[in-house]
Fold:
Amino acid sequence: MLSKLFPFIKEKPLSERAQSRDAFIYLDWAVWSFGWTKPADKRWSLVYNLWAAFMVGLILIFLPLSMGFEYVQRFKSFSAGEFLSSLEIGVDVFGNSFKCAFTMIGYRKMEEAKRLLNRLDERCVQAAERATAHRCVAWGNRVYVVYHIFYYSFVLMNFPYFLLKGRHAWRMYFPLINTDQHFLLSSIAECILMAECIFMNLCTDVCPLISMLMARCHITLLKDRLRNLRSEPGKTEDEYLEELTKCIQDHRLILDYVNALRPVFSGTIFVQFLLIGTVLGLSMINLMFFSTFWTGLATCLFMFDVSMETFPFCYLCNVIIDDCQDLADCLFHSNWVSADRRYKTTLVYFLQNLQNPITLTAGGVFPICMNTNLAMMKLAFSVVTLIKQFNLAEKFQ
Structure:
């Protein structure tokens, strides 16, 4: 059923050609709608750039300022639960502006990385290699669709409840509109803005995950090639050396691919790490002390969505570190004992390079891995523990 709505989440047969960059199809469509790319027809460049400026001004500048101004202007009208429900979203919206800015600025680097994927695809000639590539491409598009469902489920769950209650879901300020007198109009405007913000946030969160998923795809293919070195009888030593040289070139392309994306993801994940503890802490306080059943359900979904911003990507980075160790093991256990001196000398230098794992850092400070992710999430529990020890929640009830 889902594959009929989103056909690219289905793995293509080997009779059809699929490139690694096809894993970004849905993401590229979404990014294009925000004006982050370039129009295919240069005659529309001015219109497209004006649209991009409008979306940046509306979502990345106006929206966080609107929520912040509402806190200042009508702070006394908030109940504790309403304030925390709005604040946890507001903090995430504010951080989203920085995350999207990093992604938008680094889009050219992402295009450069996709060109490197095209070169890596040229090595996928065997049926098994193409099947692996097709499977990873399908998973890349599945990741986008799954994130899309979970992120928008929060809006679909939160907005109707507050609308039926006659209250604003996120409390935004709109110039020239009295939100009390024009409740329905302002509520619809809130929903549209929040949906667009989540859509933009979705692109920023999915981009690193799909990119590193394709990096792991080609690392997996390289492991198989290293494992099969000198396994085909009847070839000359020059042909065996040529195979090893091509594997070295593949590894260099993978490193170039990751290095091209490194500055883009560094700032994005750094902001996410800073946000996750704060946002989850506010959400847990709201959930434990101020939520009803329905708002608590929406808060749980929001917490799950926030965790998805960092957890899958950090887990994937850990897996890639292990894969890099496997690369060295596969090369060492290949059939090199009977090789000539040139082959062995090249293998030794390659083996030394393979022992350096592919690692990413957030803002040049935090290593992107599960340990960092868990350390940031512990901050949320520390905030809740502090609130409980001082009974601060009871004073606002």
